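ZP: hey, is the FE3-S4 cluster complex queued? I don't see it on the tracker
AM: it wasn't, my bad. submitting now with these inputs:
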Amino acid sequence: MKHKYQVVTFGCQMNEHDSEVLAGTMETLGYEHSEDLEKCDAIIINTCCVRESAENRILGYVGNLKRLKRIKPGLVIAIGGCMVQQPGMAEKIRKRASHVDIIFGTHHMHRLPQLITEAINGGEVQINIEENEGEIPENLPIKRQGSMKAQVTIMYGCNNFCTYCIVPYVRGRERSRAPEAIQKEIAALGREGFKEIMLLGQNVNSYGLDFEVPFDFADLLKSIDGKGGIERIRYMTSHPRDFTSKLIDTIAGSKTVCEHFHLPIQAGSNKILKLMNRGYSRETYLSLIEEIRKKFSLCSITTDIIVGFPGETDQDFTDTLKLMKEAQFDAAYTFLYSSRSGTPAAKMPEQIPLNVKKERLQMLMEIQNEISLSINQKLIGQTVEILVEGESKTSDQIMSGRTRTNKIVNFPGDKNTVGKLIHVDIKNAKTWHLEGKMINSPQ
Ligand code: SAH
Ligand code: SF4
Ligand code: F3S
């Protein structure tokens, strides 16, 4: 019988995709995925540390695995990803969680097979967290989660050093993957029947800035647009600071790059944006989204916002609320500021008390929900094209898909629509999704 493994993922899409590589790696070692942790011979935890809440959850999770290790001493527990890359964290885990066998950072995923073998043969806890920003490992095995949407990393790391953010410290400097490697991967995905590609990077607009021969993100999009049966191309995340007119024009002229712009603004006050080191003002941000809306008759714009950054006064927060009303985002992902040790913001004076942060978050969410609903209501009566992804969360009679603008549309239908592009009439609108009726049978 094959040995069993599970990869447990915390964090962003980057981590989700890294976990696909970790799963692929385990399968080439002869392991088989199991949903049941108790049956596993190896558990790999891929961690996040962008906010303290994630970290606490992970530490709790790892603590709970002690019981399993006691029952099954041969169990290999490996903990990798962003969290262990922080200074002192590996030691902290070694001391507090002696049942962990392997600690491997974001630069050592490709070494997992060797680390697992060493752990099975017994011996010391393996710690591998030193930074290694040399070559990007290519051709790692990937076990993809779905068969329709695939994630493709286009760059690693981040050079932006927003003052609140831990990512540049744990993911290292920006490194772009060679265009040929990306194109080859996408062509293969097209042949396998994938319909949608999500290009991943912490700041995709910086793609290619580290190349000697100029080839930027817009060039990359142009080179993959409309090729190999891929119907939709998305990307995550783009930074408002260097979202160029060239990029906007390239997307407007493309066939498959979707009209969804996720442009995290983070705050609406110029004072706070400056303290955050974001490199744009509310005015330049608003003119960017105006430019986008002028070019696209139908598009969606979403954002991320942090409330309670150090020094955020009532006036600063009011500026954020005002910006939300002006910008009319389709959706906003809102976060309580979380102090990350080692970042400049952690040492700034005037940290905001938790209750104030929570009040502000509540106000922000209420305003955004109203805006999201009213934007969605305007779609009632329209016909939209969706790519059907599967059953909806609530019923197997109701299918769920997404518009090019990334809105979820649920509609009565059956499984043969999955993976197809179909047209639906929008009948009803909610804050987070739309409800529709299919008007043609799948092509
Ligand atoms: N590279 C992406 C986002 C990475 S993290 C970008 O720049 O847009 C995803 C989101 O988490 C960020 O957009 C930000 O809103 C939030 N975030 C990052 N660090 C945070 C912190 N210390 N506290 C609260 N939210 C944070
Ligand atoms: Fe963090 Fe800023 Fe880099 Fe995004 S761009 S990962 S928020 S430092
Ligand atoms: Fe978290 Fe690392 Fe992503 S810190 S948000 S998993 S890059």
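AM: back. Residues 4-128 form a domain with the Rossmann fold fold (CATH 3.40.50.12160).
ZP: great, adding it to the tracker
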